[in-house]
Design a protein that fits this description.
168 residues; mainly alpha; 68% helix
Length: 168
């Protein structure tokens, strides 16, 4: 695989543990999709009503309820924004057709946007809190929220390392 990488790409320059950055980008992508699909919580109303909710389910429910502003925030910060960061990070890792200056600019943008990364998790936390403030008797968190949080943190770390690698 290494022989097929563009000689100007970050993947071709990587050595040691930095060679794991490509697989870590892919792992963050898998964790992100799992975070979207797996239930993040079970909401129990009263004693007999129980519903497992994923991020995608929550987005669909917001849309169906006509809460388009909250839908846009949830989709923007929990789906589009993290996916965009990983797609660009993967492109920067494997693509070699960029100049070093262009690569550094893109990584600078990703690094600056990375400061907003925890907003992804914050949006999900707000949903949990909002559900608790309604007529809810119990909320149980599930693997989806942990998978989503792990994807966000892993993408932040990978993008930070890509930035350092590009500057070397």
């Amino acid at each position: 695989m290494r022989g097929r990488l563009h000689p100007n790409g970050l993947a071709a320059r990587a050595s040691g543990l930095d060679r794991l950055l490509g697989p870590l980008i892919a792992l963050a992508g898998v964790l992100l999709v799992a975070g979207w699909l797996l239930p993040i919580m079970t909401v129990e109303r009263f004693v007999f009503l129980s519903q497992r909710v994923s991020i995608l389910d929550g987005a669909a429910e917001l849309w169906d309820a006509g809460r388009y502003g909250l839908f846009a925030i949830l989709v923007g910060f929990s789906i589009a924004f993290p996916a965009f960061k990983l797609i660009v990070a993967g492109y920067l890792w494997f693509a070699g057709g960029l100049t070093d200056a262009a690569r550094r600019r893109l990584l600078g943008v990703l690094d600056a946007l990375g400061r907003w990364s925890m907003l992804d998790v914050f949006v999900v936390a707000v949903i949990v809190v909002a559900a608790q403030l309604s007529i809810v008797s119990d909320i149980q968190l599930h693997g989806g929220i942990y998978s989503f949080a792990a994807a966000v943190v892993l993408s932040m770390l990978v993008i930070r390392r890509l930035t350092s690698l590009a500057q070397a």
